[in-house]
Amino acid sequence: MKLKFLGTGTSQGVPVIGCTCEVCTSKNPKDKRFRSSVMITTEESRKILVDCGPDFREQMLLNHENNVDIALLTHEHNDHVIGLDDMRPLIFKSGKNMPIYCNERVGQEIKKRFPYAFADERYPGAPAFDLHEIENKPFHVLDTEITPIEVTHYKIMILGYKFKNLAYITDASFISDTEKEKLQNLDVLILNCIRKFDPHPAHFVLPDVIALFKELKPKKLFLTHISHHLGLHDIEDKDLPEGMHLAYDGLEIEF
């Protein structure tokens, strides 16, 4: 299987509008970050999208991706779901509703934000979604076992996802001991890291991620959901402990 980082930035993206810091003005493509999302390609070449933010259209075009078989949603914040309307060309091409997997709370929010996708009589150009409610237990889709991982994002519970021996977690500020049992000795762990030092109420910062790396002992750990406050990619990546890396948009890994 493969995972491609379609976006590795925070809700504002990088560069941030109006910011003139060294990261936002960097010419290095690795310092340009769309809102966080990944594409999983299964062993049968099926496509699983995790989150669909406002940059979805450009992410698909730049990465020459032309299909999504299902979408998994971690939570309902706009930087993770508001691009769902841009799935229309894929829906029209396939002639099928787009399957979306998420928990019950997120599903209700999707219905509120995209009511026209669920109307009995839809406008001809409207998208069409099939919601599949999931709980915090493994499920199978596209011949792939997916294990949800329940984490805390400020005051709400959201989902990360585990595929084989890779886990993807974004927007977390706390992981319980029970959920950490799913994350022991992974080949690849992907965690959000919004900035370098100052604690954040809704996201891990670098000391939190380093502590989890030492505790969970994955073979490799990639940082995502990165803001301009973390620093320049090429400098900060070199300073990370061995086995830890900054992810960047377009990076593809096999697992």
TrEMBL record:
Database matches in Pfam families: Lactamase_B_2 (PF12706)
Metallo-beta-lactamase domain mapped to chain residues: 34-225
InterPro entries the record matches: Metallo-B-lactamas, RibonucZ/Hydroxyglut_hydro
Record-linked SMART domains: Lactamase_B (SM00849)
PANTHER family attached to this UniProt entry: HYDROLASE C777.06C-RELATED, HYDROLASE C777.06C-RELATED-RELATED
Protein name: Phosphoribosyl 1,2-cyclic phosphate phosphodiesterase
Species whose genome carries this gene: Chryseobacterium shigense
Phylogenetic placement of the source organism: Bacteria, Pseudomonadati, Bacteroidota, Flavobacteriia, Flavobacteriales
